[in-house]
Amino acid sequence: MWNDIITQVHWEPTDKCNSACPMCPRYDDHGYETKTLSNSEWTLKDFKKAWPVEFIQGLHKILACGNFGDPCACKEFVDIYEYVREVKSGIGLACNTNGSLRTPSWWARLGAVMRADQNKGNYCTFSLDGLEDTNHLYRRNTVWSKIMVNAQAFIDAGGIAHWDYIVFEHNEHQVEEARKLAKN
Fold first, then answer.
1. Which of 28, 95, 37, 32 is nearest to 61 (CA)?
2. Whose C-alpha in 9, 32, 35, 163 is 20 to 30 A from the C-alpha of 15?
3. Can you give the chain as a three-state secondary structure string?
4. What integer pLDDT is reported at residue 113 of this predicted model?
5. Between residues 4 and 39, which one has the greater pLDDT?
6. How far apart are CA 97 and CA 57, in angstroms?
7. CA angle in degrees (0–180, nearest 5) for 92-94-98
8. pLDDT tens, 64-112?
9. Backbone Cα Rg of the chain
10. Residues 138 and 19 sit within 8 Å (Cβ to Cβ)
């Protein structure tokens, strides 16, 4: 039924996030978290129930990205992607994150699941808006040193990392330096 129509899915594993970005829809005009958030997350059990094997097998790609949350805030996110990989080994897996949650070993596990040799469409986009002295101005509550260690663990495990950089007045002078760091 679905496989003739749906080949890619943009999925939000949670509406939880550690960051407090000023323009995020998680917050109202006064900076307070909106009351409509459930602070919930998918479990592997719920995922298996909602996503039949036949549906997963018909997909080409899953992008875990948050309108309200960071996918890495979902406790069972890697478990879910491991399960998807078992169901369809060649599926493209992607995610977007601020990168400051979890440990390097968690990121290495995610990198192993999303290795580039499994599908050319595998990648993790790290949303970093500046360098060590400016990223936290927009991506509030994030820690640059932790992001760098986590991203390196992901890359060392075979993951492909992309850098998403929103240019603001406070970080525009760092674009070229960030580009060089990204290439390294």
1. 95
2. 163
3. CCCCCCCEEEECCECCCCCCCCCCCCECCCCCECCCCCCCECCHHHHHHHCCHHHHHCCCEEEECCCCCCHHHCCCHHHHHHHHHHHCCCCEEEEEECCCCCCHHHHHHHHHHCEHHHCCCCEEEEECCCCCCCHHHHCCCCCHHHHHHHHHHHHHCCECEEEECCCCCCCHHHHHHHHHHHHC
4. 97
5. 39
6. 25
7. 170
8. 998 899 999 999 999 999 999 999 999 999 999 999 999 999 999 999 9
9. 17
10. no
Nearest to residue 90, comparing CAs of 49, 125, 126, 58? Answer: 58
pTM over 0.90: yes
Inter-CA distances, 51 with 15, 21, 40, 56, 62, Å: 19, 31, 18, 7, 12
Per-residue tokens: 141: 């509550």
